[in-house]
Write a structure and sequence with these properties.
Chain lengths: 243, 441
């Protein structure tokens, strides 16, 4: 499949933001990066924009006057499985979690820069590419060897149920390994993926990331299930289930 | 009738009731004590001997002229009784308790003594109880006597002291208990007043006398008002903070259009600083509206990840401690706190080490650096909000000086503590101590 490759047609993004200048600036930043943008300043305008044609992504400010972005997100979800990124001036973790659990795909706190904006949009579009049009959206959980990866919350739970905190790069590496479980991924491919993902400014080598992940995934004498394939790359050698 | 029987509700009413009760008890007990003295009796033969001795001595004394009486009286003094002649009644005899029972016993044997006007009293000498008395002579002078050995009815001296003391002690005890009970709500009020401002609001139960109830209800209302006032202000400040992020986002997007990389970097730094200030202010005010719930967290990995994240951004931060250590806490709050400590260490020392060490009944997280440390006299002061040690003009740190206050709050929220100390050989050690109440896996 083409997972990881940008779709052939230009992705269309509906941008819902009540601040006119920020709307213009965000739209321009997205257009400069090759996206078609349909701006909207309120909920009714958003519904109009959604009806104008197929949409690949909705960027939604949760603090719109008059409407709660959370309610709006729920309303969109009832009609469509289009990916949604929340924009919020609140750095609140509750907001983030509520949004993500309602089916938003990511959460972008203000103030964001062009680089971060584009990286998030790209990541969500890539993640959504394979799953679009499936009747039921997956909950976004991956299980392996007793561990649980919660994709929307970007959270890893240990077999005992404790939250295991990972850096952004480590989490992305783990998800990539899960996505390709049972297969060997070359170091070059991992390096490439870790560069494009989320604009993480990490310049650590993949080997350092892998060794850290192994330590954080070790479990009282139980080795982490990440295997080095000499001269080629790494593989996750346990079965992975998704729910 | 019911209204009359009801407990008085006012402070004055209750104090009055307590006084009334204590006085009643005092009255009852003293009455009993005097009653007991008047019931004091000796064995019949002793009363008889005393009566005979008195009658004979009086008769013989009366036959002599007054000049010889004093000398003669001494001759009547035996091992048992001391007899003396006096022209007047000794004044002490008026103050001793009456010995009604003994009087009856003596008069029964020698009724003449009654008509002569016998006086009997009880007195004490040290712990001994003695009977003293006087009989008037026909010419108006007095024959005074007293027993030489203490009467064996009881060591009345000691018991009298005890008896006199008992009501006083009982009174102190009873009124103490009653007053304490009455003022118990006052103590609860004091506890609540002490607790106020440290997080949880304690509604004080309205109890006790009317005046106290009024104070408590006024206190509760005041507590509410202050709470609401703080909440309103916090909300307003938080709203300002949130609103500032929109223009800040515009600025950041606009900054991307700046061609000069130096200017772009400078503007980006300014925006980052402003964002950091807003975030720390919101974190301090709790304005993010987060009531984070505690969760089971691998604390060791959390500390390691903070070090890793910083290391990934080119900073010299290490982690030292076990690979895994599970603990129940609020992870975001603690992460923010640890990041503040690491940021401080990087700023002042350029490097640091995050150490996790399980100690007795607790777990210590230490951020240690090899920097200049903090002058001992400033160690406490820096933990207060808005305090910064850099002179105002030369300030080059980001934020408002809220970093350490946020750390202290995060530690308190977990029931732990936070302290700063200079390390031996230089550098600062910032220690968060968390009690280990959550079961360790």
């Amino acid at each position: 499949m083409y997972a990881g490759e940008p779709p052939l047609s230009l992705p269309t993004i509906v941008l819902v933001e009540d601040d006119p200048q920020l709307r213009t600036l965000t739209a321009r930043a997205l257009q400069e990066n090759g996206y078609t943008v349909r701006p909207a300043s309120s909920a009714p305008e958003m519904w109009l924009a959604l009806e104008q044609g197929p949409v690949d992504l909705v960027l939604l400010d949760v603090m719109l006057p008059g409407t709660s972005g959370i309610d709006l997100c729920r309303a969109i979800r009832q009609k469509s499985s289009v990916p949604i990124i929340f924009i919020s001036a609140k750095g609140s973790e509750t907001d983030r979690v509520v949004g993500l659990e309602l089916g938003a795909d990511d959460y972008l706190p203000k103030p964001f820069g062009t680089r971060e904006l584009v990286a998030r949009v790209r990541a969500v579009l890539r993640r959504g590419a394979g799953e679009r049009d499936t009747a039921e959206r997956p909950k976004g959980e991956i299980q392996f060897d007793g561990w649980t990866v919660n994709l929307p919350r970007r959270e890893l739970l240990s077999p005992t149920g404790a939250v295991v905190d990972l850096t952004g790069a480590e989490f992305d590496l783990l998800v990539t390994l899960c996505d390709h479980s049972g297969r060997v991924i070359s170091r070059e491919r991992l390096i490439e993926l870790s560069r494009t993902r989320l604009g993480d400014s990490s310049d650590r080598s993949i080997d350092v990331l892998v060794s850290r992940l192994r330590r954080k995934l070790s479990d009282a004498g139980h080795q982490a299930p990440i295997v080095t394939v000499r001269g080629i790359g790494y593989t996750l050698n346990v079965p992975v289930t998704r729910s | 009738m019911r209204a009359f029987l009801k407990r008085p509700s006012g402070l004055i009413g209750q104090v009055f009731a307590i006084l009334l009760l204590t006085i009643l008890i005092e009255f009852a007990v003293s009455t009993m004590l005097y009653e007991r003295a008047s019931q004091f009796a000796v064995r019949d033969d002793e009363a008889r001997r005393l009566a005979e001795h008195l009658v004979i001595a009086r008769k013989l004394l009366a036959e002599q002229p007054p000049a010889r009486r004093e000398q003669l009286a001494l001759e009547f003094t035996t091992s048992r009784y001391e007899v003396r002649w006096m022209p007047q009644l000794p004044s002490g005899l008026r103050e001793q308790p009456d010995l009604d029972r003994l009087y009856e016993q003596v008069v029964l044997w020698e009724p003449t003594l009654a008509s002569n006007g016998l006086r009997l009293r009880l007195t004490s000498q040290g712990s001994k109880a003695l009977i003293v008395g006087a009989v008037p002579m026909p010419d108006g002078s007095w024959m005074y006597f007293r027993t030489r050995e203490h009467v064996h009815a009881a060591d009345l001296g000691l018991s009298r002291i005890l008896l006199a003391l008992a009501p006083a002690l009982a009174l102190i005890l009873i009124s103490g208990i009653l007053l304490r009970r009455m003022l118990l709500p006052m103590r609860r009020l004091a506890v609540a007043a002490d607790r106020f401002g440290t997080g949880s609001v304690l509604e004080v139960e309205e109890a006790g006398p009317k005046e106290l109830r009024r104070v408590i209800s006024a206190f509760n209302r005041m507590q509410d008002r202050i709470q609401r006032l703080i909440a309103d202000r916090t909300q307003a400040l938080a709203a300002v903070g949130h609103d500032m992020r929109t223009p800040l986002a515009r600025l950041r997007l606009r900054a991307d259009a700046i061609a000069d990389p130096d200017v772009h970097a400078a503007v980006e730094t300014d925006i980052t600083e402003m964002e950091a200030m807003i975030s720390s202010l919101l974190a301090f005010l709790g304005g993010e509206g987060d009531r984070e719930t505690p969760a089971r967290v691998d604390l060791a990995v959390l500390c390691a990840t903070i070090a890793d994240d910083n290391a990934d951004h080119g900073r010299d931060v290490e982690y030292d401690g076990p690979d895994h250590f599970e603990h129940v806490l609020r992870p975001l709050m603690l992460k923010r706190a640890l990041n503040n400590l690491v940021d401080n260490a990087i700023h002042y020392a350029g490097q640091c080490c995050v150490r996790l060490e399980p100690v007795d009944g607790a777990v210590a997280i230490r951020v240690e650096d090899k920097g200049p440390g903090i002058p001992e006299e400033d160690l406490q002061r820096v933990m207060q909000p808005f305090v910064r040690l850099d002179a105002a003009r030369s300030r080059d740190t980001v934020g408002f000086g809220l970093g350490l206050s946020i750390v202290a709050r995060a530690a308190e929220a977990e029931g732990g503590s936070f302290r700063l100390a200079n390390r031996e050989g230089g550098g600062l050690c910032a220690e968060i101590l968390l009690p280990r109440d959550g079961p360790k896996a």
